[in-house]
Amino acid sequence: MIFPSDYKSVGMTRTEPTGRIGCAIYFTTEYLIADLPSGYFIYKVKSEGEGLLRKLVSLTLIANGSRITKFGEKLDSHDRTRLIESAIPLCKGNIDTVIFEGMDKHVTFVKDPSLLDVMEIEIIDITPPEPPWLALAIERLNKSGILGELNIRFTEKLIDLRQFEGEKMVFPCHASELRGKYLDTDIDIENNSELVGCDISKQIFDLRFPDLIYKHINMCPLKAEMYMPTRPFITRCCQSKKSGMVNINGIDGAVVHWGASEYDIVDAIRMLVNVLKGIQVS
Q1: pLDDT band with cut points at 50, 70 and 90 for residue 176
Q2: Are 13 and 33 a contacting pair, CB within 8 Å?
Q3: How far, in Å, CA of 282 to CA of 280, rounded?
Q4: Which of 142, 145, 201, 249 could form a disulfide with 172 if both were Cys (CB 3.0 to 4.6 A apart)?
Q5: Is the dihedral of CA 171, 175, 179, 185 positive or negative?
Q6: What is the pTM of this model?
Q7: Using 50, 70 and 90 to split pLDDT, how confident is the model at 279?
Q8: Which has the closest alpha carbon to 35: 12, 18, 58, 2?
Q9: What does the pLDDT read at residue 281?
Q10: Angle of helix 133-144 relative to helix 262-276, nearest 10 degrees?
Q11: CA-to-CA distance for 144 and 26, rounded, in angstroms?
Q12: Which residue ranges make up each domain of the chain?
């Protein structure tokens, strides 16, 4: 796949460029799209020199004519995953390259689009609440385009606590509205109950009901008792001290606090992507 790292490296011309070898070209130009009466031509640019304008040394044709189509809708040029996903269905038959025009009129292109270069991150979240906050927040952030240049896409693994509802079940909070008892409001919790909660819930149960015998089902995603991550992931935890990067069974992940803001979530995702790319994070 050829996909310029930034649209500022893509130049545009409406005149034949091959006769300009030896002439000046803008220093950021790595690719040049020629929009000519006979169709589009896309070149890889080689230049030399210093300063804003440099000497054009050569143009290497990488796509032309019937191999190129232009996407009909203006998209966010920074949203790389969406551009790749939009280009794939159009690349059929002879077509292998799609030109995109951004909402700011800048252009870029994708040649031989492939999702192999897109990182997949798993959202591990608890429901209820419905919808679960982390999954909802990431869906909104993803639609906004704020994560667009990271080349990522998301899948969801939602742990549904409704599978544990019952008369002898105890849940941490009444806000879940699950059928059972609630650790934060009920006082008539019985012996041989089952607590569905994290380590903090267990500590509270032991403090409130020290004489009761009970079973503990640990729902904390970091304990991986209910679900083992299968790919890089982001999840949340009620203990703020556990926020940051983690590794579960050899798989890297990011942890945000249970009540993390969308700003915190973006920061965590960016940090995770850096870890996956081998970029050192402090």
Answers
A1: confident
A2: yes
A3: 7
A4: 201
A5: positive
A6: 0.83
A7: confident
A8: 12
A9: 62
A10: 80
A11: 32
A12: 7-116, 118-282
